[in-house]
Amino acid sequence: MSWQDKKFATVDDLLQFMNSTPTKPNVSVAYRGQSDISLHLLSSLDRLLAADMHYENRLAKETAIIVKFCELAKEFCDDTEKGYLQGPVPQDRIKALPILQHYNAPTRLLDWTANPLIALYFAAIHHHNKDGAIWWFKRNAFYDEVGKRWEKHGLRRHPEQDDGIDLNDTAFNTDGPPWISELNCLVPFPRIRVQQGFFTIAGRLGFEHGVLIADVLKKEDYGRIIIPNSWKQQILDRLRTVNIHSRSIDYPGADLVGIHLTQELKI
């Protein structure tokens, strides 16, 4: 099922709507801003792997990234992070993935935020010649519906883990089912805290998170807000007045310009 689009007549109308959207955790809405509306809700790993790659090879690539990260990054990580990266392959790869994601390694995770203004920033910061978008879904409804499907997907509850589900049970199997779930980072990274961030994770590589989320929810529980490209700079200027900018949310600023210039020389 496709995500229903919502458009606004003016920047003021958009900001009024975003500011009226509650940001308290108990309201439970997830937001994701992307500066290019044409990009699907695919993880960074799935964007890099060839669509026709054999599934066993996709899983092998993912495992190789995890192993190499654990090997090379351990000298730069604190003891809490190292506790989740014991290898060569961490015993709990699911808990390790948010750490890789935080350090920009390609993973099967997708970033979301509980703050609509943070999502608006990411929808406006890049690609000023393209429309952006904010995807949103109701987290309580998502949690309830996902919980009803674990048995169908063959995941059992573990009494020793407070009757919880262990996503490791099927996530890295060649015949694992295409579930979707929310995931939080257990390491208290400041950037994740200020961005009020969390993730979605798919049970199989190559699946678009937007399709899996839409399959779980009723149409009134998810949607997409269009951000016209001609509004982006005005949006960024207005967000700065409420202290939403690259430094306040611990997002690389001029560093990205330097990286872009370096990449241009390599082409």
Would you give an account of this structure?
The chain is an alpha+beta fold and 267 residues long. It has one domain (5-266). Helices cover 40% and strands 15% of the residues. The chain has twelve helices and nine strands. The chain has helices at residues 11-20, 44-48, 55-73, 79-83, 93-102, 116-124, 139-147, 168-171, 190-194, 209-216, 232-240, 254-266; strands spanning 5-6, 29-34, 109-113, 132-138, 157-158, 164-165, 180-183, 197-202, 222-227. It has a four-stranded mixed sheet. Helix 6 packs across helix 11. The chain starts with a strand and ends with a helix. The relative contact order is 0.20. The mean pLDDT is 92.
Number of helix segments? Answer: 12
Strand content: 5-15%
Instruction: Classify the helix fraction into a percent range.
Output: 25-40%
Query: What is the domain total for the residues?
Result: 1
Shape: globular
Largest sheet: 4 strands, mixed
Could you tell me the number of beta strands? 9
- Order of the strands making up the biggest sheet: 1-9-4-2
Series of secondary-structure elements, N-terminal to C-terminal:
EHEHHHHEHEHEEHEHEHEHH
Based on helices, strands and strand pairing, what is the structural class? alpha+beta
* Oligomeric state of the chains in view: single chain
Q: Averaging pLDDT over every residue, what do you get?
A: 92
Low-confidence stretches: none
Distance N terminus to C terminus? 39 Å
Computed over alpha carbons, the radius of gyration is 19 Å
